[in-house]
Amino acid sequence: MSVCTCNVSLSNTGRPGCFPVEGVAFKLILVAMQQSDGTANEIDLENDTLDASYISGLINNSDDNARWFPIGNFKNVVIERADPITQEFDDGSVFKIRDGVKSFAGVIPKQTSDLKRKLDSWSCTTFGAYIITKDGQLIGDGGTAGKLKPIKIESGSFDARYVHTTDTTVPQLQLNFQWVTDFSDANLRMLEASDWTSGDLTTVSGLIDLFYDIAASPAPTATGFTVDITTDYGSVKSREGIGGLDLVTDFDVVGSTSGTTAIATATEDSSVQGRYAITFTTLTGEAVYVQKKSATLGYNDFETETVTLP
Question: Is the pLDDT of residue 302 over 70?
Fold first, then answer.
């Protein structure tokens, strides 16, 4: 529950008021500052419908540069601003030159080095972050009237460190970075959890990257083949299989000549998680691959592997 703070306005006409204040940081939503077409990534506070569909649409956006990438759940978060840069004169007077650098530090427990690899890729992009608090608040840059933008990050400062397990600690990912030096805390604004008509920001997660291998045995036929679908987590030799997928509803087979073809049946192997035997309309002699349907939510696109059918 948000804390309510009473305050007296500094204006002559102000009166005491009670308002919610920021909760403890719990997650971050990483997002590029601009979409691929150059449009700024921002929440339009006047026109956007703030609900679960809105959140899902951003997380599943086909444009990587418009997509939300939630990460967390953070522990031991420290967000603080260093002392300002000042100049002191001989008479003892001090002039403030600029604000000190504002930094973020936090850990995500029970993580693997795979997450570090994903986060490292952000350091060569221009991006920012929204902060999600434990109270479900969304905090961003409200410096533009009617908009809430991600707070821009100094990409060169973005440092993800994998911390190994010890006898007394779990493996974890330590994340440190600095916000851009010209961001003013005076522009911090937040959306309360109650501002969303549906959806819970504290439970959001990013897309799962999927990979697949077309099995050599049993050999592919003109009407089907066996495929192993995995994530990029797990053993370097045996990645974690993804069971329970509905391939008929959520995936297609694409042929080099026939184009998109629906999967007719998909039977998951009872002993090997993530292994599926699929069938489809005859595609004799075509090079084919599996493709996620555009309407499929929760998963990123495959890296394409093709096989030529007999």
Answer: yes
Query: CATH number of the domain at 211-308, please?
Result: 2.60.40
Same fold, 4-8+16-203 and 211-308: no
* pLDDT tens-digit series, residues 182-195: 999 999 999 999 99
Instruction: Please provide the distance, in angstroms rounded to a whole number, between the alpha carbons at the two ends of the chain.
Output: 62
Reading the block at residue 6, the tokens are 């009473």
**CA angle centred on 174, ends 179 and 206, rounded to 5°:** 80
Q: Which long-range contacts (CB under 8 A, 24 or more apart) does 232-236 make?
A: 232/114, 233/112, 233/114
DSSP 80-117: EEPPPEEEE-TTS-EEEEEPPPEEEEEEEES--HHHHH
Question: What fold characterizes domain 4-8+16-203?
Answer: Pnp Oxidase; Chain A (2.30.110)
Q: Which is nearest to 72 in space by CA: 123, 105, 28, 116?
A: 28
pLDDT exceeds 90 at position 271:
yes
- The band of 131, judged by pLDDT with boundaries at 50, 70 and 90, is very high
List the chain domain ranges.
4-8+16-203, 211-308
Pairing between strand 127-133 and 102-109? unpaired
